[in-house]
Amino acid sequence: MQVLTRPPSGHPALVLNADFRPLSYYPLSIWPWQEAVKAVFQDRVDVVSTYDRVVRSPSIEMALPSVVSLKSYIDQDRAPAFTRFNVFLRDGFACQYCGSSQDLTFDHVLPRSQGGRTSWENIVAACAPCNLRKGGRTPRQASMPIRRSPHRPNSWQLQEAGRRFPPHYLHQSWLDYLYWDVELLP
After folding, report:
1. Per-residue pLDDT at 35 exceeds 90
2. Do 84 and 75 form a contact (C-beta atoms < 8 A)?
3. What is the DSSP string of 81-144?
4. Which residues contact 186 (CB under 8 A, 6 or more apart)?
5. Residue 28 has pLDDT above 90, yes or no
């Protein structure tokens, strides 16, 4: 990961909630500069920090926002959506049988053929080879123990999981609002 002193390509703006915490860590909550400027004019955000780059119209000139905060707080305690991405995030983007991060798929712990449902509590990330090897059997029947039992995460747990996957770059103006230990990052 790089800390950039020059604006990243496209001049994206980091989006913070009204409490100055990012809306999400993974993916990092960023908007294209056009969306940030639009939100400023709609009075939905406050500009916290700007780039040195300026955009102009016939009547105004404005520095491009690098960090914006929402004026209205978005509740982060809502239950996270059950999506493939969120399951992979919960499971650390690793197969729950062998630990591989390659070719991930969904796996029903209790197979659908045995009455298993598609839910947080019955789905884990699995690499394609492990999923194929397990087939329509339970982990016990296939002698494939699960590393971590599936569970329904709350929003805070997914946010914490997302913090383990920093983006490839961060702009210097974003660092005060993100909580990764920059010295320890690759």
Report:
1. yes
2. no
3. P--HHHHHHHTTTS-TTT---SSEEEEESS-GGGT--SSGGGEEEEEHHHHHHHTTS-TTTTT-
4. 1
5. no
67 strand-pairing partners: 14, 49
In which element (H, E) is residue 160 found? helix 155-162
Q: What is the CA 73 to chain-centroid distance, rounded? A: 19
- Given the DSSP bridges, would you call strands 169-171 and 2-4 parallel, antiparallel or unpaired? parallel
The whole-number pLDDT of residue 45 equals 98
- The confidence band for 26, taking pLDDT boundaries of 50, 70 and 90, is confident
**Whole-number Å distance between alpha carbons of 139 and 159:** 28
Report the C-alpha gap between 142 and 43 in whole angstroms.
57
CA 58 remoteness from chain centre = 38
Pairing of strands 123-127, 45-56: unpaired
